Amino acid sequence: MTPRPYRVVSRRDDLIDTVTLELAPVGDACPAPMAGQFNMLWAFGVGEAPISVAGFDDGVLIHTIRRVGAVTAALCASVDGDQIGLRGPFGTGWDLPRATGGDVLVVAGGLGLAPVRPIITDLLANRADFGRAVLLVGARTPDALLYRDELEGWRGRLDLDVEVTVDAASPAWRGDVGVVTRLIERAPVDPANTTAFVCGPEVMMRFAAQAVLDRGVPATHVVLSLERNMHCAIGHCGHCQLGPMFVCKDGPVVGWTDVEALLRIRER
Length: 268
Ligand SMILES: Cc1cc2nc3c(=O)[nH]c(=O)nc-3n(C[C@H](O)[C@H](O)[C@H](O)COP(=O)(O)OP(=O)(O)OC[C@H]3O[C@@H](n4cnc5c(N)ncnc54)[C@H](O)[C@@H]3O)c2cc1C
Ligand code: FES
Description:
- By secondary structure, the protein is an alpha/beta fold.
- It folds into two domains: 4-90, Elongation Factor Tu (Ef-tu), domain 3 (Beta Barrel); 96-267, Nucleotide-binding domain of ferredoxin-NADP reductase (FNR) module (Rossmann fold).
- 23% of the residues lie in helices and 33% in strands.
- The chain has seven helices and 16 strands.
- The chain has helices spanning 70-76, 113-125, 148-155, 181-184, 202-214, 247-250, 256-267; strands spanning 4-15, 18-25, 38-43, 47-52, 55-57, 60-66, 83-90, 103-109, 133-139, 161-166, 176-177, 194-199, 222-225, 241-242, 245-246, 253-255.
- Strand 1 (4-15) and strand 2 (18-25) form a beta hairpin.
- The model has no long low-confidence stretch (mean pLDDT 95).
- The structure holds flavin-adenine dinucleotide and FE2/S2 (inorganic) cluster.
- Residues 38, 49-52, 64-66, 68-72, 111, 114, 227-228, 230, 252 line the site of flavin-adenine dinucleotide.
- Flavin-adenine dinucleotide is lined by residues 38, 49-52, 64-66, 68-72, 111, 114, 227-228, 230, 252.
């Protein structure tokens, strides 16, 4: 439960309200995370927030943080050399190897691109293990598109299909316009042999999961990542309870078949 000190070794302003921090341990490091897990990041004197692992490279953790309240504002205000407390990693991972031998369809909405970024980097590092690979990204506007340079790089590859759409275009936008679920209809995958990884706002995930199922992807091959208010992150306090599950421990990555009924109840 005690946060370990990490130092900000790099800070990048991604969007007007979103910052990516690279964090290196000051002393003992936390265990290496799996793709899909999250850490509790502590802004000293302010508080703690769960933040997904957006990358892990040579001991350095990458976290992308949107400023919505006191804790995330303090984290986003960090500069190189500042210290942050960190405990984790917590929760379940994406388990990309479950898709070995088949096609991979990754669907991300908004900040949901951060938690799925490690899927893409792991997939590209082990590209021969998978069939076709497709990344579909949706953002509200072109200005709200995360990791633009990286997306350009991925788009240039012959072994990864990347499609990007925005809800509302700017005059300079030459890409797709519309919700990300529309891209699912034409994603070049073999549905029966596909695993879909979905992350974004909950309403987007419900529609995206349905569109993936409508394409014929088996329900057992659809996984998504949930967000709930969290406090302890270790299954003790009950803050993150969703039906019978504690999202901090049984999630955040869950199978569609495990949460379908719970998410539909919330929809009414
Ligand atoms: C497993 C998990 C992974 C997460 N990963 C990330 C991540 O990678 N990057 C990231 O920026 N955030 C992530 N979040 C969300 C992040 O934890 C919250 O935004 C943060 O706890 C808000 O704390 P705060 O003190 O800044 O704001 P608060 O004071 O708690 O909230 C301020 C306002 O923002 C609203 N708010 C709270 N959370 C969100 C949200 N997620 N989206 C929109 N509005 C919100 C509140 O309702 C309130 O109105 C994750 C959450 C979970 C559970
Ligand atoms: S955050 Fe305490 S039980 Fe999940």
